[in-house]
Automatic annotation (TrEMBL):
It catalyses: a fatty acyl-[ACP] + malonyl-[ACP] + H(+) = a 3-oxoacyl-[ACP] + holo-[ACP] + CO2; (9Z)-hexadecenoyl-[ACP] + malonyl-[ACP] + H(+) = 3-oxo-(11Z)-octadecenoyl-[ACP] + holo-[ACP] + CO2. Residues 3-414 form the Ketosynthase family 3 (KS3) domain. PANTHER family: 3-OXOACYL-[ACYL-CARRIER-PROTEIN] SYNTHASE, MITOCHONDRIAL (PTHR11712:SF336), POLYKETIDE SYNTHASE-RELATED (PTHR11712). The keyword ATP-binding does not apply. The active site is at residue 165. CDD domains: KAS_I_II. It comes from the Bacteria. GO terms for molecular function: 3-oxoacyl-[acyl-carrier-protein] synthase activity. This is 3-oxoacyl-[acyl-carrier-protein] synthase 2. The keyword DNA damage does not apply. Involved in the type II fatty acid elongation cycle. Catalyzes the elongation of a wide range of acyl-ACP by the addition of two carbons from malonyl-ACP to an acyl acceptor. Can efficiently catalyze the conversion of palmitoleoyl-ACP (cis-hexadec-9-enoyl-ACP) to cis-vaccenoyl-ACP (cis-octadec-11-enoyl-ACP), an essential step in the thermal regulation of fatty acid composition. InterPro entries: 3-oxoacyl-ACP_synth-2, Beta-ketoacyl_synthase, Ketoacyl_synth_AS, Ketoacyl_synth_C, Ketoacyl_synth_N, PKS_Beta-ketoAc_synthase_dom, Thiolase-like.
Amino acid sequence: MELKRVVVTGLGALTPIGNDVESFWEGLKNGVSGACPITRFDATNYKTKFACELKGFEVTDFIPRQDARKMDLFTQFGVVAAEQAVLDANFDLDKVNKNKIGVIWGSGIGGLKTFEEEVLNLADNDMNPRFNPFFIPKMIADSASGQISMKFGFRGPNFVTVSACASTNNAMIDAFNYIRLGRMVACVTGGSEAAVTRAGIGGFNALRALSTRNDDYKTASRPYDTDRDGFVLGEGGAGIILEEYEHAKARGAKIYCELAGGGMSSDAYHITAPHPEGLGAFLSMEDALDDAKMVPEDIDYINTHGTSTGLGDPQEITAIENLFKDHAYKVSISSTKSMTGHLLGGAGAVESVAAILAIQHQMVPPTINLHNVDEKINPKIDLTPNVAKARKIDTVLSNCFGFGGHNATLIFKKYNG
């Protein structure tokens, strides 16, 4: 059967450097760091005392208090980002066939804050155990897609993908496939995460995964820099409306770009470490290119996974060199996690919006805090250090890799009618 084309018709972003798409892009192009001292709990006794939190976000500005109290923070973030995207897509909700619009969301952890609060409450009251009646529906990861669908009445396929930091790219690939197979006309997709909690920071500290640059937190997220000491945890999310091309054209929708392909693979190697030769990353990118019927020379910009870790950063670059050959030195590369921090399961959504905006504005966001490139990385690689760069961008590849060896790659291309 002939697969249908899939385009992007709506965007929403709730990030540590901007609470909407416009401010997010301003932060990206200006190289703004979202890192700040942790305010969500008292981090005095933690090894890491900073994170990339949202700034100036009040959930009751968007969701009535009685509804918000039934949602974990990651779901609140998801509902707000999804609403931005739905409004941007400008659907006529009285006329659109809601039975053919789905919600496929991504989150790597789900309701961590809710789970933590309930366990702490139980520990304090073990002789008289009491639980919030919304404990389970707030905690489970699929509550995000459920709440989004209920808000808009979208009755198509509805679920949440969980594959650690690859979760959102997996969600978008699923949405992409449902639409191009004709099972939906549109889908609200994306992802959200809210892991800046005691358990989140403490757990990643125990893994020695987080930066502890407490005296210089603004420069702590430094992908590819030899002086990096771990990633910076972020929070927030992003929503993206994927839509079947003919359906979008018929209703006169604004089209940002086309989603051309998606690829997936597994490292089958280690529970947290990437394959030492970047094999899973290579296979995921190769699969995405094959799906999009493209070759490496078609790619202008790669938004890398680039978390700011000594194991992950060079392996991804090795995979790019092995797959792209000489074109690896002509393509622009950057890690926007240097600005937003690592949103875990929500990372792919935020980075997909960055990729789409790079096509819109013909500009590569920078990798900030990059001053001394890791000696393991070929100096011919263009990592877009510190300053955004204008260039012709027709096609962007965006990578996400997760604990457990999950890899997922998306390819967006300029819409040409």
